Amino acid sequence: MKPDQPNQNRAKLDVSKADVVALAPPAEFVSGAKDLGIELEAAEVAGLGLYLALLMKANQTQNLTAVRDETEAWRRHILDSLTLLPALAEFPEGARVIDVGSGGGLPGIPLAIAMPHLKFTLLEATAKKCDFLTQVVGRVGLKNTVVLQGRSERVGHDRGERADKFGTVTHSGGHREAYDAVVARAVGRLATLVELTAPLCRIGGSVLLIKGEKAGEELAEAERALHLLKVVHVETLQTPTGRIVILEKRSATPRDYPRADGEPSRAPLGGKADRTG
Q1: Which residues lie across from 235 on neighbouring strands?
Q2: Which residue of 4, 119, 155, 179 has the lowest C-beta tally within 10 Å?
Q3: CATH number, domain 81-266
Q4: Are 109 and 140 in contact (CB under 8 A)?
Q5: CA separation for the pair 96, 104 (Å, rounded)
Q6: Mean pLDDT calculated for residue range 216-220
Q7: What are the residue boundaries of the structural domains of the chain, listed by start?
Q8: How far apart are CA 126 and CA 188, in angstroms?
Q9: Could you report the per-residue pLDDT of 95-152, keeping only the tens digit for each?
Q10: What is the pLDDT of residue 169?
């Protein structure tokens, strides 16, 4: 995730008042959701359709997704994001979830629409994408979602305000080890991604990563990273659209991690250089 550079000639992305109509879900999405045991209320389906319409509208001028076909987008974006629902289902009301490298809002926005009882943070480094996410959050009416601009390498060290009272040091308002669950999709290889996500997860929390068919290969490659970052591979779930790698954080992240901007991608902990990060 590279921060956006100032550019006076950059086209202003604004979908807050765009004339769009919520897209209706195709039969393939409905049957796919049913097969996963996902039950959505009519208002949630409408919210997902509106979000997807806004994403496709913005994509006409901004590179937010390579998927141009609406039917394919329902499967590859919405259904793929919602495959995380079963893994998040046991989290209590008010649990905090952060979507690392949210980009165009995936998987965070579909999850926030379908799980209004959880609190979502969309972490994205690029300013124009944050603009889009903020507009979508307002347009869809997501009261449980905030947008945070920043690099995970820096946000992962943010402990918030420090207070020392009667010899007891506490922190409040930060992001390091503050989230019950950390999710990510299409951000990078596991050896890189673990370093960008684990520091944000609380001890005892979960890191849920949507991956493809090479998940097993990436897990083997990331063995050293998992060890150094104090997370354990619990399970890999196969879904109709890919695989979900479930990690559990057993103890505190060592203070040296995450490393400086770009370092997790350039020199992964035990893995090959990540050209997608």
Answers
A1: 246
A2: 4
A3: 3.40.50.150
A4: yes
A5: 20
A6: 95
A7: 81-266
A8: 16
A9: 999 999 999 999 999 999 999 999 999 999 999 999 999 999 999 999 999 999 999 9
A10: 59
